[in-house]
Amino acid sequence: MTWTLFELLLQASLMTIFVSVTSIFLGLAFAIGLSAMRMSGAAPLVWFARIFISFFRGVPLLVQLLLIFNLLPAIGLSLSSLTTALIGLSLCTAAYQAENLRGGFEGVPRGLIESAEMAGLSPVQSFIWIRTPIALRLTFPALVNEAILILKSSSLVSVVGLIELTKMAQNLAASTYMPLPIFASAGLIYLAINWIVAIAGRRAEIALPGLPAK
Amino acid sequence: MTQPAISVRNVSKRFGETLVLKDINLEVPRGQVSCLIGPSGSGKSTLLRCMAFLEEASAGMIEIEGEPLGFSEKDGKRRRQTPGELRKTRSKIGMVFQQFNLWPHMTALGNVSMALRRVRRLSRKEAEERAMAQLVKVGLEARAGHYPSQLSGGQQQRVAIARALALEPTIMLFDEPTSALDPELTGEVLNVMRALASEGMTMVVVTHEIGFAASVGNNVCFLDHGQLLFHDTPETVFAAPRHPRLEQFLDTYLDRGAQMLR
Protein backbone atom coordinates (compact mmCIF):
# COMPACT_ATOMS: atom_id res chain seq x y z
CA MET A 1 0.00 0.00 0.00
CA THR A 2 1.70 3.15 -1.17
CA TRP A 3 0.87 6.78 -0.75
CA THR A 4 0.13 7.01 -4.48
CA LEU A 5 -2.54 4.32 -4.19
CA PHE A 6 -4.05 6.03 -1.16
CA GLU A 7 -4.07 9.32 -3.02
CA LEU A 8 -5.99 7.70 -5.87
CA LEU A 9 -8.54 6.46 -3.36
CA LEU A 10 -8.85 9.93 -1.84
CA GLN A 11 -9.37 11.46 -5.27
CA ALA A 12 -12.08 8.93 -6.05
CA SER A 13 -13.74 9.67 -2.71
CA LEU A 14 -14.28 13.22 -3.94
CA MET A 15 -16.59 11.73 -6.57
CA THR A 16 -18.37 9.74 -3.84
CA ILE A 17 -18.88 12.93 -1.85
CA PHE A 18 -20.01 14.91 -4.90
CA VAL A 19 -22.55 12.29 -5.98
CA SER A 20 -23.89 11.82 -2.45
CA VAL A 21 -24.19 15.47 -1.53
CA THR A 22 -25.83 16.39 -4.81
CA SER A 23 -28.28 13.49 -4.53
CA ILE A 24 -29.18 14.31 -0.95
CA PHE A 25 -30.09 17.89 -1.81
CA LEU A 26 -31.81 17.03 -5.10
CA GLY A 27 -33.64 14.28 -3.24
CA LEU A 28 -34.67 16.71 -0.52
CA ALA A 29 -36.11 19.10 -3.09
CA PHE A 30 -38.02 16.23 -4.74
CA ALA A 31 -39.19 15.00 -1.35
CA ILE A 32 -40.64 18.41 -0.48
CA GLY A 33 -42.37 18.40 -3.86
CA LEU A 34 -43.75 14.90 -3.21
CA SER A 35 -45.00 16.02 0.22
CA ALA A 36 -46.73 19.01 -1.36
CA MET A 37 -48.39 16.69 -3.88
CA ARG A 38 -49.49 14.31 -1.16
CA MET A 39 -51.03 17.14 0.85
CA SER A 40 -52.54 18.94 -2.14
CA GLY A 41 -55.74 16.93 -1.96
CA ALA A 42 -55.77 16.61 -5.77
CA ALA A 43 -56.26 12.89 -6.47
CA PRO A 44 -53.86 12.55 -9.46
CA LEU A 45 -51.03 14.27 -7.56
CA VAL A 46 -51.68 12.26 -4.42
CA TRP A 47 -51.60 9.01 -6.39
CA PHE A 48 -48.50 9.98 -8.33
CA ALA A 49 -46.67 10.66 -5.06
CA ARG A 50 -47.86 7.40 -3.51
CA ILE A 51 -46.87 5.25 -6.48
CA PHE A 52 -43.54 7.04 -6.83
CA ILE A 53 -42.69 6.50 -3.18
CA SER A 54 -43.74 2.86 -3.08
CA PHE A 55 -41.79 2.08 -6.26
CA PHE A 56 -38.54 3.72 -5.22
CA ARG A 57 -38.73 2.36 -1.70
CA GLY A 58 -39.70 -1.11 -2.82
CA VAL A 59 -37.18 -1.81 -5.59
CA PRO A 60 -33.51 -2.28 -4.64
CA LEU A 61 -31.31 0.66 -5.58
CA LEU A 62 -28.99 -1.63 -7.54
CA VAL A 63 -31.89 -2.81 -9.70
CA GLN A 64 -33.08 0.81 -10.13
CA LEU A 65 -29.65 1.89 -11.31
CA LEU A 66 -29.42 -0.98 -13.80
CA LEU A 67 -32.94 -0.22 -14.99
CA ILE A 68 -32.17 3.45 -15.57
CA PHE A 69 -28.83 2.59 -17.15
CA ASN A 70 -30.46 0.21 -19.64
CA LEU A 71 -33.83 1.85 -20.04
CA LEU A 72 -32.78 5.37 -20.98
CA PRO A 73 -30.58 4.39 -23.95
CA ALA A 74 -33.41 2.10 -25.10
CA ILE A 75 -35.71 5.09 -25.44
CA GLY A 76 -33.01 7.07 -27.18
CA LEU A 77 -31.61 9.04 -24.26
CA SER A 78 -27.94 8.51 -23.77
CA LEU A 79 -26.77 9.92 -20.49
CA SER A 80 -23.35 9.93 -18.91
CA SER A 81 -22.73 7.53 -16.06
CA LEU A 82 -22.55 10.52 -13.70
CA THR A 83 -26.03 11.74 -14.71
CA THR A 84 -27.43 8.22 -14.45
CA ALA A 85 -25.97 7.83 -10.98
CA LEU A 86 -27.36 11.18 -9.85
CA ILE A 87 -30.84 10.38 -11.18
CA GLY A 88 -30.90 6.95 -9.57
CA LEU A 89 -29.61 8.04 -6.18
CA SER A 90 -31.67 11.19 -5.90
CA LEU A 91 -34.96 9.57 -6.90
CA CYS A 92 -34.35 6.76 -4.45
CA THR A 93 -33.48 9.05 -1.55
CA ALA A 94 -36.40 11.34 -2.48
CA ALA A 95 -38.81 8.49 -1.72
CA TYR A 96 -37.23 7.81 1.68
CA GLN A 97 -36.97 11.49 2.55
CA ALA A 98 -40.61 12.04 1.60
CA GLU A 99 -41.57 9.36 4.10
CA ASN A 100 -39.40 10.97 6.78
CA LEU A 101 -40.92 14.36 6.04
CA ARG A 102 -44.42 12.96 6.32
CA GLY A 103 -43.86 12.50 10.04
CA GLY A 104 -42.47 16.03 10.25
CA PHE A 105 -45.43 17.60 8.49
CA GLU A 106 -47.82 15.68 10.72
CA GLY A 107 -45.87 16.97 13.72
CA VAL A 108 -46.44 20.65 12.91
CA PRO A 109 -48.88 21.79 15.59
CA ARG A 110 -52.31 22.68 14.21
CA GLY A 111 -52.23 26.03 16.02
CA LEU A 112 -49.18 27.21 14.06
CA ILE A 113 -51.03 26.62 10.81
CA GLU A 114 -54.10 28.42 12.20
CA SER A 115 -52.01 31.44 13.17
CA ALA A 116 -50.57 31.49 9.64
CA GLU A 117 -54.09 31.34 8.26
CA MET A 118 -55.19 34.22 10.49
CA ALA A 119 -52.15 36.25 9.38
CA GLY A 120 -53.53 36.00 5.85
CA LEU A 121 -51.02 33.52 4.44
CA SER A 122 -52.36 31.40 1.59
CA PRO A 123 -52.03 27.60 1.88
CA VAL A 124 -49.03 27.71 -0.47
CA GLN A 125 -47.34 30.48 1.54
CA SER A 126 -48.06 28.60 4.73
CA PHE A 127 -46.49 25.47 3.19
CA ILE A 128 -43.36 27.35 2.11
CA TRP A 129 -42.76 29.62 5.09
CA ILE A 130 -44.28 27.78 8.03
CA ARG A 131 -44.89 24.07 7.52
CA THR A 132 -41.80 23.07 5.53
CA PRO A 133 -39.20 24.80 7.74
CA ILE A 134 -40.77 23.31 10.86
CA ALA A 135 -41.11 19.84 9.32
CA LEU A 136 -37.44 20.00 8.25
CA ARG A 137 -36.35 20.89 11.76
CA LEU A 138 -38.44 18.11 13.25
CA THR A 139 -36.97 15.53 10.88
CA PHE A 140 -33.42 16.84 10.78
CA PRO A 141 -31.88 13.83 12.59
CA ALA A 142 -33.54 11.53 10.05
CA LEU A 143 -32.07 13.65 7.26
CA VAL A 144 -28.54 13.21 8.66
CA ASN A 145 -29.19 9.48 8.91
CA GLU A 146 -30.35 9.40 5.31
CA ALA A 147 -27.21 11.31 4.23
CA ILE A 148 -25.06 8.60 5.82
CA LEU A 149 -27.08 5.83 4.15
CA ILE A 150 -26.76 7.54 0.77
CA LEU A 151 -23.00 7.97 1.19
CA LYS A 152 -22.73 4.22 1.66
CA SER A 153 -25.28 3.39 -1.06
CA SER A 154 -23.30 5.51 -3.48
CA SER A 155 -20.88 2.57 -3.70
CA LEU A 156 -23.55 0.89 -5.86
CA VAL A 157 -23.26 3.46 -8.64
CA SER A 158 -20.05 1.73 -9.72
CA VAL A 159 -22.36 -0.59 -11.74
CA VAL A 160 -23.16 2.23 -14.15
CA GLY A 161 -19.47 2.79 -14.74
CA LEU A 162 -18.84 5.77 -12.49
CA ILE A 163 -15.43 5.71 -10.85
CA GLU A 164 -16.00 6.57 -7.25
CA LEU A 165 -14.35 5.25 -4.12
CA THR A 166 -15.56 1.64 -4.32
CA LYS A 167 -14.96 1.29 -8.06
CA MET A 168 -11.49 2.75 -7.69
CA ALA A 169 -10.73 0.33 -4.87
CA GLN A 170 -11.89 -2.58 -7.02
CA ASN A 171 -9.74 -1.42 -9.93
CA LEU A 172 -6.66 -0.93 -7.76
CA ALA A 173 -7.17 -4.25 -6.00
CA ALA A 174 -7.39 -6.01 -9.35
CA SER A 175 -4.27 -4.38 -10.74
CA THR A 176 -2.06 -4.56 -7.64
CA TYR A 177 -3.22 -7.88 -6.14
CA MET A 178 -3.42 -6.19 -2.73
CA PRO A 179 -7.15 -6.30 -1.99
CA LEU A 180 -6.86 -6.31 1.78
CA PRO A 181 -5.03 -3.00 2.43
CA ILE A 182 -6.89 -1.29 -0.39
CA PHE A 183 -10.41 -2.25 0.74
CA ALA A 184 -9.44 -1.56 4.36
CA SER A 185 -8.33 1.94 3.32
CA ALA A 186 -11.54 2.49 1.35
CA GLY A 187 -13.56 1.39 4.38
CA LEU A 188 -11.65 3.79 6.60
CA ILE A 189 -12.29 6.65 4.19
CA TYR A 190 -16.04 5.92 4.22
CA LEU A 191 -15.94 5.75 8.00
CA ALA A 192 -14.11 9.08 8.25
CA ILE A 193 -16.53 10.85 5.91
CA ASN A 194 -19.58 9.55 7.76
CA TRP A 195 -18.04 10.41 11.09
CA ILE A 196 -17.66 14.00 9.92
CA VAL A 197 -21.25 14.02 8.60
CA ALA A 198 -22.55 12.72 11.94
CA ILE A 199 -20.64 15.31 13.97
CA ALA A 200 -21.59 18.16 11.66
CA GLY A 201 -25.20 16.98 11.81
CA ARG A 202 -25.23 17.01 15.59
CA ARG A 203 -23.66 20.47 15.67
CA ALA A 204 -26.21 21.79 13.19
CA GLU A 205 -29.05 20.24 15.16
CA ILE A 206 -28.02 22.14 18.27
CA ALA A 207 -27.53 25.38 16.35
CA LEU A 208 -30.91 25.23 14.61
CA PRO A 209 -33.09 27.71 16.42
CA GLY A 210 -36.48 26.97 17.76
CA LEU A 211 -38.34 23.70 17.59
CA PRO A 212 -42.03 23.82 18.45
CA ALA A 213 -42.60 23.20 22.14
CA LYS A 214 -43.57 19.62 22.86
CA MET B 1 -77.89 52.45 15.23
CA THR B 2 -74.39 52.00 13.87
CA GLN B 3 -73.37 48.77 12.31
CA PRO B 4 -71.95 46.26 14.80
CA ALA B 5 -68.36 45.05 14.45
CA ILE B 6 -69.49 41.44 14.51
CA SER B 7 -72.98 40.14 14.22
CA VAL B 8 -73.77 36.53 14.99
CA ARG B 9 -77.15 35.39 13.76
CA ASN B 10 -78.74 32.06 14.66
CA VAL B 11 -75.40 30.30 14.81
CA SER B 12 -75.36 26.65 15.76
CA LYS B 13 -72.39 24.33 15.77
CA ARG B 14 -72.46 20.59 15.91
CA PHE B 15 -69.54 18.22 16.44
CA GLY B 16 -71.00 14.92 15.28
CA GLU B 17 -73.97 14.29 17.53
CA THR B 18 -73.16 16.98 20.10
CA LEU B 19 -74.62 20.41 19.72
CA VAL B 20 -71.94 22.74 21.11
CA LEU B 21 -73.55 26.04 20.12
CA LYS B 22 -77.31 26.43 20.17
CA ASP B 23 -78.80 29.20 18.08
CA ILE B 24 -76.54 32.02 19.24
CA ASN B 25 -77.50 35.61 18.49
CA LEU B 26 -75.06 38.31 19.45
CA GLU B 27 -73.95 41.71 18.27
CA VAL B 28 -70.49 42.90 19.19
CA PRO B 29 -70.47 46.70 19.24
CA ARG B 30 -67.56 48.62 17.79
CA GLY B 31 -64.91 50.07 20.02
CA GLN B 32 -65.92 47.99 23.00
CA VAL B 33 -64.57 45.03 24.92
CA SER B 34 -66.88 42.04 25.00
CA CYS B 35 -65.93 39.20 27.31
CA LEU B 36 -67.21 35.67 26.86
CA ILE B 37 -67.28 33.81 30.14
CA GLY B 38 -68.69 30.50 31.23
CA PRO B 39 -67.66 27.05 32.44
CA SER B 40 -65.34 24.79 30.43
CA GLY B 41 -67.16 23.16 27.57
CA SER B 42 -69.78 25.88 27.46
CA GLY B 43 -68.84 26.66 23.85
CA LYS B 44 -67.25 30.07 24.39
CA SER B 45 -64.01 29.21 22.58
CA THR B 46 -65.95 27.54 19.78
CA LEU B 47 -68.04 30.69 19.37
CA LEU B 48 -64.92 32.83 19.20
CA ARG B 49 -63.33 30.45 16.67
CA CYS B 50 -66.49 30.67 14.58
CA MET B 51 -66.03 34.46 14.57
CA ALA B 52 -62.65 33.85 12.87
CA PHE B 53 -63.97 31.02 10.70
CA LEU B 54 -61.46 28.65 12.27
CA GLU B 55 -64.59 26.62 12.99
CA GLU B 56 -67.42 26.54 10.52
CA ALA B 57 -70.82 27.18 11.99
CA SER B 58 -73.21 24.34 11.09
CA ALA B 59 -76.02 26.85 10.67
CA GLY B 60 -76.47 30.61 10.81
CA MET B 61 -74.42 33.54 9.60
CA ILE B 62 -71.61 35.64 10.98
CA GLU B 63 -70.89 39.08 9.62
CA ILE B 64 -67.78 41.15 10.17
CA GLU B 65 -68.60 44.84 9.79
CA GLY B 66 -71.51 43.90 7.58
CA GLU B 67 -69.49 41.50 5.39
CA PRO B 68 -70.42 37.82 5.56
CA LEU B 69 -67.61 35.63 6.91
CA GLY B 70 -66.89 32.22 5.41
CA PHE B 71 -70.33 31.74 3.92
CA SER B 72 -72.33 33.98 1.64
CA GLU B 73 -76.08 33.91 1.59
CA LYS B 74 -77.91 33.93 -1.69
CA ASP B 75 -81.61 33.16 -2.13
CA GLY B 76 -81.65 31.80 1.40
CA LYS B 77 -78.86 29.30 0.64
CA ARG B 78 -75.43 29.26 2.23
CA ARG B 79 -72.48 29.10 -0.13
CA ARG B 80 -68.88 28.69 0.97
CA GLN B 81 -66.76 31.73 0.13
CA THR B 82 -63.70 31.43 -2.06
CA PRO B 83 -60.37 31.52 -0.18
CA GLY B 84 -59.83 35.04 -1.51
CA GLU B 85 -63.18 36.33 -0.22
CA LEU B 86 -62.54 34.70 3.14
CA ARG B 87 -59.05 36.21 3.42
CA LYS B 88 -60.42 39.66 2.62
CA THR B 89 -63.04 39.58 5.37
CA ARG B 90 -60.63 37.92 7.76
CA SER B 91 -58.05 40.65 7.26
CA LYS B 92 -60.14 42.82 9.59
CA ILE B 93 -59.59 40.33 12.40
CA GLY B 94 -56.53 39.76 14.56
CA MET B 95 -56.45 36.58 16.61
CA VAL B 96 -54.56 35.75 19.79
CA PHE B 97 -54.46 32.11 20.87
CA GLN B 98 -54.23 30.41 24.22
CA GLN B 99 -51.02 28.62 23.18
CA PHE B 100 -49.54 31.79 21.55
CA ASN B 101 -48.82 29.84 18.35
CA LEU B 102 -45.71 31.79 17.49
CA TRP B 103 -43.69 30.24 14.67
CA PRO B 104 -40.76 28.66 16.48
CA HIS B 105 -38.24 29.02 13.66
CA MET B 106 -38.51 32.81 13.51
CA THR B 107 -37.42 35.51 15.92
CA ALA B 108 -39.95 37.78 17.59
CA LEU B 109 -39.29 40.35 14.87
CA GLY B 110 -39.59 37.66 12.20
CA ASN B 111 -42.96 36.55 13.59
CA VAL B 112 -44.33 40.08 13.61
CA SER B 113 -42.95 41.09 10.19
CA MET B 114 -43.75 37.79 8.39
CA ALA B 115 -47.21 38.65 7.05
CA LEU B 116 -46.22 42.26 6.36
CA ARG B 117 -43.58 40.93 3.99
CA ARG B 118 -45.31 37.93 2.47
CA VAL B 119 -48.95 39.06 2.46
CA ARG B 120 -48.69 42.84 2.34
CA ARG B 121 -45.55 42.60 0.18
CA LEU B 122 -43.68 45.34 2.01
CA SER B 123 -39.92 45.55 1.64
CA ARG B 124 -37.96 43.84 4.36
CA LYS B 125 -36.87 47.18 5.77
CA GLU B 126 -40.33 48.66 5.95
CA ALA B 127 -41.88 45.48 7.31
CA GLU B 128 -39.28 45.27 10.05
CA GLU B 129 -39.72 48.94 10.95
CA ARG B 130 -43.46 48.48 11.37
CA ALA B 131 -42.94 45.23 13.25
CA MET B 132 -40.50 46.95 15.57
CA ALA B 133 -43.05 49.69 16.27
CA GLN B 134 -45.50 47.00 17.38
CA LEU B 135 -42.87 45.34 19.58
CA VAL B 136 -42.22 48.74 21.19
CA LYS B 137 -45.93 48.98 21.87
CA VAL B 138 -45.96 45.72 23.81
CA GLY B 139 -42.68 46.65 25.50
CA LEU B 140 -40.53 43.97 23.87
CA GLU B 141 -38.23 45.89 21.51
CA ALA B 142 -35.26 44.54 23.46
CA ARG B 143 -36.35 40.98 22.68
CA ALA B 144 -36.80 41.46 18.92
CA GLY B 145 -33.98 39.06 18.05
CA HIS B 146 -35.07 36.30 20.44
CA TYR B 147 -36.71 33.09 19.34
CA PRO B 148 -39.99 32.08 20.99
CA SER B 149 -38.21 29.35 22.95
CA GLN B 150 -36.02 32.05 24.52
CA LEU B 151 -39.01 34.06 25.76
CA SER B 152 -41.27 33.61 28.77
CA GLY B 153 -44.90 32.71 28.20
CA GLY B 154 -46.03 36.26 28.93
CA GLN B 155 -43.48 37.66 26.49
CA GLN B 156 -44.52 35.15 23.84
CA GLN B 157 -48.14 36.17 24.21
CA ARG B 158 -47.20 39.86 23.92
CA VAL B 159 -45.29 39.08 20.71
CA ALA B 160 -48.38 37.24 19.48
CA ILE B 161 -50.47 40.35 20.20
CA ALA B 162 -47.93 42.51 18.35
CA ARG B 163 -48.04 40.06 15.42
CA ALA B 164 -51.81 40.40 15.19
CA LEU B 165 -51.72 44.20 15.59
CA ALA B 166 -49.09 44.63 12.87
CA LEU B 167 -51.73 43.80 10.26
CA GLU B 168 -53.88 46.68 11.54
CA PRO B 169 -57.05 44.75 12.27
CA THR B 170 -60.17 46.57 13.41
CA ILE B 171 -61.23 43.68 15.63
CA MET B 172 -59.09 41.61 17.98
CA LEU B 173 -60.18 38.18 19.15
CA PHE B 174 -58.53 36.68 22.23
CA ASP B 175 -58.98 32.98 22.98
CA GLU B 176 -58.15 32.50 26.67
CA PRO B 177 -55.00 34.59 26.25
CA THR B 178 -53.76 34.07 29.80
CA SER B 179 -54.88 30.50 30.50
CA ALA B 180 -51.50 28.99 29.61
CA LEU B 181 -49.58 31.47 31.77
CA ASP B 182 -48.31 31.41 35.33
CA PRO B 183 -50.35 33.78 37.47
CA GLU B 184 -47.28 35.99 37.75
CA LEU B 185 -47.09 36.44 33.97
CA THR B 186 -50.81 37.00 33.50
CA GLY B 187 -50.62 40.63 34.59
CA GLU B 188 -48.23 41.79 31.85
CA VAL B 189 -50.51 40.38 29.15
CA LEU B 190 -53.65 41.85 30.73
CA ASN B 191 -51.91 45.24 30.93
CA VAL B 192 -51.22 45.18 27.19
CA MET B 193 -54.85 44.25 26.58
CA ARG B 194 -56.05 47.02 28.88
CA ALA B 195 -53.97 49.57 26.96
CA LEU B 196 -55.41 48.27 23.71
CA ALA B 197 -58.95 48.59 25.08
CA SER B 198 -58.33 52.17 26.14
CA GLU B 199 -57.33 52.99 22.56
CA GLY B 200 -60.79 51.97 21.49
CA MET B 201 -59.97 48.64 19.82
CA THR B 202 -62.95 46.36 19.35
CA MET B 203 -62.10 43.26 21.37
CA VAL B 204 -63.77 39.93 22.01
CA VAL B 205 -62.11 38.08 24.86
CA VAL B 206 -62.78 34.54 25.99
CA THR B 207 -61.46 34.51 29.51
CA HIS B 208 -61.49 32.96 32.94
CA GLU B 209 -60.22 36.23 34.37
CA ILE B 210 -63.49 37.37 35.93
CA GLY B 211 -61.73 40.42 37.35
CA PHE B 212 -60.62 41.49 33.88
CA ALA B 213 -64.12 40.93 32.50
CA ALA B 214 -65.61 43.01 35.29
CA SER B 215 -63.14 45.87 35.15
CA VAL B 216 -62.24 46.17 31.44
CA GLY B 217 -65.24 44.60 29.74
CA ASN B 218 -68.03 46.76 28.39
CA ASN B 219 -70.15 43.69 27.86
CA VAL B 220 -70.13 40.32 29.54
CA CYS B 221 -71.66 37.34 27.78
CA PHE B 222 -72.32 34.22 29.81
CA LEU B 223 -72.44 30.91 27.98
CA ASP B 224 -73.56 27.61 29.42
CA HIS B 225 -74.05 24.31 27.59
CA GLY B 226 -73.80 26.00 24.22
CA GLN B 227 -76.41 28.63 25.01
CA LEU B 228 -75.89 32.32 25.41
CA LEU B 229 -77.75 32.71 28.70
CA PHE B 230 -77.47 36.49 28.90
CA HIS B 231 -75.26 39.41 28.02
CA ASP B 232 -75.15 42.83 29.55
CA THR B 233 -72.80 45.36 31.09
CA PRO B 234 -70.60 43.93 33.85
CA GLU B 235 -72.32 46.23 36.38
CA THR B 236 -75.65 44.59 35.65
CA VAL B 237 -74.32 41.06 35.24
CA PHE B 238 -72.27 40.95 38.41
CA ALA B 239 -74.65 43.01 40.56
CA ALA B 240 -76.91 41.10 42.94
CA PRO B 241 -79.28 39.46 42.41
CA ARG B 242 -77.27 37.45 39.95
CA HIS B 243 -78.56 34.90 37.52
CA PRO B 244 -78.62 31.58 39.44
CA ARG B 245 -76.38 29.81 36.90
CA LEU B 246 -73.81 32.62 37.09
CA GLU B 247 -74.00 32.49 40.88
CA GLN B 248 -73.22 28.77 40.75
CA PHE B 249 -70.35 29.36 38.29
CA LEU B 250 -68.82 32.08 40.45
CA ASP B 251 -69.17 29.86 43.53
CA THR B 252 -67.17 27.00 42.02
CA TYR B 253 -64.75 29.61 40.72
CA LEU B 254 -64.21 31.02 44.19
CA ASP B 255 -64.09 27.53 45.66
CA ARG B 256 -61.21 26.67 43.40
CA GLY B 257 -59.34 29.68 44.69
CA ALA B 258 -60.15 28.82 48.26
CA GLN B 259 -59.01 25.23 47.91
CA MET B 260 -55.58 26.38 46.93
CA LEU B 261 -55.27 28.16 50.26
CA ARG B 262 -56.08 25.11 52.35
List the helices and strands and how they pair.
The complex is a heterodimer of chains A (214) and B (262).
Chain A lengths: L2 H38 L2 H16 L2 H14 L6 H26 L3 H9 L4 H16 L1 H14 L11 H12 L2 H29 L7
Helix pairs in contact in A: 1-2, 1-4, 1-7, 1-8, 1-9, 2-4, 3-4, 4-6, 4-7, 5-6, 7-9, 8-9
Chain B lengths: L5 E10 L2 E11 L4 E5 L6 H8 L7 E6 L2 E2 L2 E4 L2 E4 L2 H8 L2 E4 L11 H11 L5 H14 L15 H14 L4 E5 L7 H16 L3 E5 L3 H7 L2 E6 L2 E6 L1 H5 L5 H18 L1
Parallel strand pairs in B: 3-10, 3-11, 8-9, 9-10
Antiparallel strand pairs in B: 1-2, 1-4, 4-5, 6-7, 11-12
Question: What would you say this structure looks like, in words?
Answer:
The complex is a heterodimer of chains A (214) and B (262). By secondary structure, chain A is an all-alpha fold. Helices cover 81% and strands 0% of the residues of chain A. Chain A has 9 helices and no strands. In chain A, helix 1 (3-40) packs across helix 7 (140-153), helix 5 packs antiparallel against helix 6 and helix 7 runs antiparallel to helix 9. The model of chain A has no long low-confidence stretch (mean pLDDT 92). In chain B, helix 6 links the parallel strand 9 and strand 10. In chain B, helix 3 packs across helix 4 and helix 3 (108-118) runs parallel beside helix 5 (153-166). Chain B starts with 5 loop residues before the first strand and ends with a helix. Chain B has 262 residues and is α/β, with parallel strands linked by helices. In chain B, 47% of the residues are buried. Chain B has a 6-stranded mixed sheet with strand order 8-9-10-3-11-12, sandwiched between helices. A 4-stranded antiparallel sheet of chain B has the order 2-1-4-5, covered by helices on one side. Chain B has 9 helices and 12 strands. Chain B has helices at 44-51, 83-90, 108-118, 124-137, 153-166, 183-198, 210-216, 234-238, 244-261, and strands at residues 6-15, 18-28, 33-37, 59-64, 67-68, 71-74, 77-80, 93-96, 171-175, 202-206, 219-224, 227-232. Classes of the chains: A mainly alpha (214), B alpha/beta (262). The interface between A and B is medium-sized, with 24 and 29 residues.
